[in-house]
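Long-time lurker, first post. I've been practising inverse folding by hand and with some scripts of my own, and I keep getting stuck on stretches where the structure tokens seem ambiguous. Below is the full token string for one chain I'm working on. Before anyone asks, I'm not after the true native sequence, just a reasonable design that respects the backbone. If someone could post their per-position residues I'd love to compare against what I wrote down in my notebook.
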């Protein structure tokens, strides 16, 4: 037997996505229109395509992220009417953009690489159509196929990554395997899908990884902002530095948000909680600014584990992370900049003495 070349994974990706959830009800993200990945015309008309990645076979500790996609799609107190007017930016991301939902990619955890290859093919289809894949995880293993699929479409090594996480996810092996939620960033840099020196991490803390892994990260030229540095220099200074690196000789930015970057007091429903993280407001403000200021070509939100959630707060936050990014994209496409965001809620709207 000869081994197969891994250059193109489509050879065994026969079934990929289907409408609705792999485990849950047949619904779309906040009621947006459905999308069939086989409908290339529909894909080309879309600005962003939601994909569910109900996969938690890569979890090293608590599982349950397979239920993340449906929780992120549905956890909101407003009607699922495909409209969300953003107060600060005055855009409606679900109306101003064409956002559609292609359902979940079926990702059986017993099949080794196959579920990841299916996801990669789906993400690639979306990115090749010129739309932004918005992938709802799932554990963080999925960022390996997510960024790989985008890089195949946008350019190999041409996409920078901004990665929010308590953990570096740059391990070499996890329980002896090359697949796991502690490893995807290493796999991406090893393959050349993205450059180590265009890989930005924010929010790291705690007691992992080991020194030899940090050594490897340093050798790749990664820039990892540990919470100590963010606290000491301030988040905004760190963001300015990260943005400059992310836009230097790259064609797009992939945004990967591990919800555990947030302090577990505000996001308890996750697989590997690490105290001492971002506040929800810091996370939402930051991803909104990224989408306004940088050319986002793909995103994922991962590690939401509803069985461990409390009052659905983690799912609410993840739902908002998606909305903030889409709102920022809509604002940017309308010509907005971070400095042009209205300073107050009703700025320019009332009868303040000038005719209008
Ligand atoms: Mn992670």
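-- Answer (accepted) --
I ran through it position by position. Result:
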């Amino acid at each position: 037997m000869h081994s197969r070349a891994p250059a193109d994974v489509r050879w065994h990706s026969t079934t990929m996505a289907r409408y609705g959830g792999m485990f849950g009800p047949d619904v779309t993200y906040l009621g947006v229109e459905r999308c069939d990945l086989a409908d290339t015309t529909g894909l080309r008309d879309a600005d962003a395509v939601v994909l569910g990645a109900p996969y938690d076979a890569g979890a090293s500790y608590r599982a349950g992220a397979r239920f993340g996609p449906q929780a992120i799609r549905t956890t909101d107190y407003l009607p699922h009417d495909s409209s969300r007017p953003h107060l600060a930016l005055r855009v409606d991301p679900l109306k101003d953009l064409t956002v559609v939902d292609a359902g979940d990619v079926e990702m059986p955890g017993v099949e080794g690489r196959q579920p990841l290859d299916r996801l990669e093919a789906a993400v690639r289809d979306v990115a090749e159509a010129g739309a932004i894949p918005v992938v709802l995880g799932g554990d963080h293993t999925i960022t390996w196929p997510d960024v790989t699929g985008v890089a195949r479409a946008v350019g190999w090594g041409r996409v920078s990554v901004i990665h929010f996480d308590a953990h570096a996810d740059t391990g070499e092996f996890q329980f002896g395997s090359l697949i796991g939620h502690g490893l995807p960033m290493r796999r991406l840099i090893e393959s050349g899908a993205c450059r180590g020196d265009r890989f930005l991490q924010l929010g790291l803390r705690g007691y992992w990884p080991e020194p030899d892994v940090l050594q490897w990260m340093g050798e790749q030229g990664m820039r990892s902002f540990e919470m100590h540095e963010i606290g000491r220099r301030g988040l905004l200074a760190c963001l300015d530095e990260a943005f400059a690196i992310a836009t230097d000789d790259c064609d797009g930015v992939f945004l990967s948000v591990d919800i555990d970057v947030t302090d577990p007091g505000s996001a308890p429903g996750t697989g590997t909680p690490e105290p001492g993280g971002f506040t929800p407001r810091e996370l939402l403000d930051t991803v909104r600014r990224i989408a306004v200021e940088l050319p986002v070509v793909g995103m994922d939100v991962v590690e939401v584990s509803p069985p461990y959630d409390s009052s659905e707060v983690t799912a609410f936050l993840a739902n908002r992370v998606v909305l903030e990014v889409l709102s920022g994209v809509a604002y940017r496409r309308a010509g907005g900049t971070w400095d042009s965001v209205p300073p107050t809620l009703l700025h320019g709207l009332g009868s303040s003495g000038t005719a209008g």
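A couple of notes from the structure itself: The chain has a mean pLDDT of 93. The longest strand covers residues 99-105. Happy to go over any region you disagree with.
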